[in-house]
Design goal:
351 residues, 12 helices, 86% helix
Length: 351
Amino acid sequence: MNSSRFVAIQWLLFTLLAGMLFYLLAPILTPFVAAAILAYICNPLVQWLGGKKVSRTTAVLLVMAGGLLLCAGLLLIMLPLMFRETNQFMLRLPDWVEAARSYLEPLFYQWFGVAVEWDVEALKGVLMSHWQSAGKVASQLLPWLGGKGGALLDNLVSLMLVPVAMFYLLRDWDGLIARLDGLIPRHLHDKVREVAGEVDGVLAEFLRGQISVMLLMSVYYSVTLWAVGLEFALPIGIVAGMLVFIPYLGMVTGLLLATLVAVMQFGELSGLLWVWAAFGAGQLIEGMLVTPWLVGDRIGLHPLAVIFALLAFGQLFGFFGILLALPLSAALLVGLRHIVKWYLSSNMYLK
């Protein structure tokens, strides 16, 4: 057996063992993978702070604190809005029940010969009493939570591991990269570094493009909702725009919040239809124009390739496939360019 074949078998065995290990440890790898992605995103900002004579550890703490404040700010925007609109919903529900009774009662009598009588005041009293005692629901959920305590604790521990792992990855980022660099076979070192550098550049462009999409869609949703006269247009627009990096989550969250506000505010179908039209148009603009333009062009993907990548990865891997479709496609595109370059200079093509 020649040496090249022996090396190929070694690499094949190593790949199989690594894949098997990854498969067996997959349930506990999620927080570490999430932390690695967040650390990769935040590392340029940490390095920028380091250039301002800030120690690495302090820079990491400042960046993580900034991220925490951003998440807290989004919650402070959403929670009061949801609480206020839920209260309004509970107050207006009896009126809607009365309207439904007035409409349906004659129909029931006409169709079935049955007179349906609803005690609206009693129903209103029941609804309000249950709403005011909603805190008691927590005690009723305790037996259920006890039965699910193990899974709940596992998820809580995984969630707490993310910031811990992220802190250590960010703090020791340069050292970890240097160690990985030292493990690359020397005869492949230059090529691996070249490909890795191109992938890093493409992913950086993807992140810049995604941030541009988030800002642009925040402005779009805020302006269009303000134009249709919706209350809380600014916070709903910001939330919907900031969440577009998770496919469909931004549109669905914004649509639900805007629908609830529109129902409370307008009380008629015409106002609701304008809100739905704004989000429908926003989804089309973001998926067919903004993302292919601001993200696809930056990472070298044709707009049709962006749409195909979203559909293909979504079909293969579901929600997470859609979430990672563009960065994975960009990384694969770099590898494909090098494969095409090798093919055009190989005997397979020349002969």
